[in-house]
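name: query_chain
kind: protein
chains: 1
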Amino acid sequence: MKHTLHGYMTVEAALLMPMVLFSLFFIIFAGFFQYDRCIAEQDGKMIVVRASDMREKDEAKVIRKVMEKGELAGKKKLLFSHSVQKEFYLTKDKAKVRIGGKVNTILNNLAKGDHWKTFGYAAEYEAKKYDPVGFIRICRRMGKYAGS
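structure:
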């Protein structure tokens, strides 16, 4: 009997292993991207909620206090995002924030196009300012309609 070894398994492994490794690295990177996006969006939500609860009249004071307390993304909790841009707007009855950032990919030096080097995310949140009198009126109106 002749013992012959075929090389088809080696060739198949050489073709499949790069695809498997790339898929594995992509799944890990997608998890890190989602983590950074969630941290930045949570930061934006906290900023809006805190700003809507403040009863200060001075806009600059409110913005300074809110930004000092609500910086999750500024406390080195992000994994791949290097900067998160925040645009904060405050009016007499609303607080609004736009938050966005970019995550550098692994293909930073390998890819030629700019759209392959970074993945971006953006979100916008808005909240009405806290109005105790309006809240009591809404509660009374709901109680009236509910029959209590």
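note: The first helix runs from residue 8 to 53.
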